[in-house]
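User: Hey, quick favor. My workstation is busy. Could you predict this chain's structure for me?
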Amino acid sequence: MPSETLWEIAKAEVEKHGSSGGEGDGLEIGEKSVFFIGSKNGGKTTIILRCLDRDEPPKPTLALEYTYGRRAKGHNIPKDIAHFWELGGGTSLLDLISIPITSDTLRTFSLVLVLDLSKPNDLWPTMENLLQATKSHVDKMIMKLGKTNSKAASEMRQKIWSNMQKDHPDRELIDPFLIPLVIIGSKYDIFQDFDSEKRKVICKTLRFVAHYYGASLMFTSKSEALLLKIRGVINQLAFGIDKSKSICVDQNKPLFITAGLDSLSQIGSPPVPDNDIGKLHAHSPMELWKKVYERVFPPKSINTLKDIKDPARDPQYAESEVDEMRIQKDQVVSLTFILSQVLSQNTSRIS
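Assistant: No problem, here it is.
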């Protein structure tokens, strides 16, 4: 019997940890988890280190990394624990999303999507691929949860609307994520020097996407003031700190919009001449915003956005001896596959 892979062991540990609290009856979860996804080299690790008060240089995230943080609640009271997961590789390792988020751990998770504002042509494909993959997996997990704990699944579906007032005019027009979502635009220091019209397109587009998914939206950079704001938001996800009620929708300043405080009327229509909207042939508001955005920032070719799917083949992690052994192993596997096909064909002929 083949031994378990590293990822199978990690997944088993996550499920074991998540199920240790029993079936659950709708009670508040003690330990929470925050999952960081987003642009490659977009600053995810830097944000995590800043939130954990770790003064160390960020290292490239190879695949899926985990760390944790503690926060004191008071004298002789056990510390709160928050689990931080980070997906590396941009959009190249989407399959790993299923490792930390399972039906057992789903209720503990929040999602943070970090987008590199300095690369607007990559922004929409990165955002779309990551959100679609995560949303699809979360939807499957909540359906699975509903089969074993219908009360918890029902409470999750109800809770996603808690950020929006009951009389909000957009309640019937949006489709919130089933877990808390924060969208962070990084490298604002570069973005602020863009042409004003380009900044307008990016700001309005991200505001629409965030509002549609019931997410918070904020921009950050290396600025200490902005990093402190982001830290406050992440602490709220990880430890339940009170939410900030501040809001900034001025495109000439770093955006900061808490979930539920924006509206379609304030965001306005997509930045395109009225007589051109009908020519775009969009089947949904999201598709319309995508078409408008990509007219200004055409996405790069699929090959340049795809990244390297196998981290073991990434040049920055090259090790000659290990790579040589890997090549030999790949050759053996290929040869074994070919031989199995030949034997299979010969067996079918004999029979």
